Amino acid sequence: MRIIGNLLWLVFGGLEAAVGYFTGSLALAVTIIGIPFALQTLKIGILCLWPFGAEVCDKENSSGCINILMNIIWIIFGGLWAFLMHVFFGILLGITIIGIPFAKQHFKMAGLSLMPFGKDVNLNI
């Protein structure tokens, strides 16, 4: 079921969202200051490619204070908008019965896109 869900996800917008995150990651990686943020958008883009079966978990060896500071900067400069976009589409898809599994994936991505520093994505392929 995960493979079918992921293929449907890719066909109906997941690939476009992932390409958007990868393009943003490339633009951020051009600057030296943006490299840590580029890694986070790359992480969200990978989750956009294969969300069914993937888990978002806390990193084991995360450095707490710097993650809080980086998450605050992330929220100010775009993370809030990505979060709101995923919540909007999650609510929109959650209205229909057939869209509930896809809404769950958007809510998973919303949590990651709000505060990605200190989180890790495990793809269970």
Automatic annotation (TrEMBL):
It holds the Pfam family YccF. It comes from the Bacteria. Keywords: Membrane, Transmembrane, Transmembrane helix. InterPro entries: Inner_membrane_protein, UCP028777, YccF. GO terms for cellular component: plasma membrane. Residues 4-53, 69-119 form the Inner membrane component domain. The chain crosses the membrane at residues 27-52, 87-103. This is YccF domain-containing protein. It comes from Candidatus Cryptobacteroides gallistercoris.
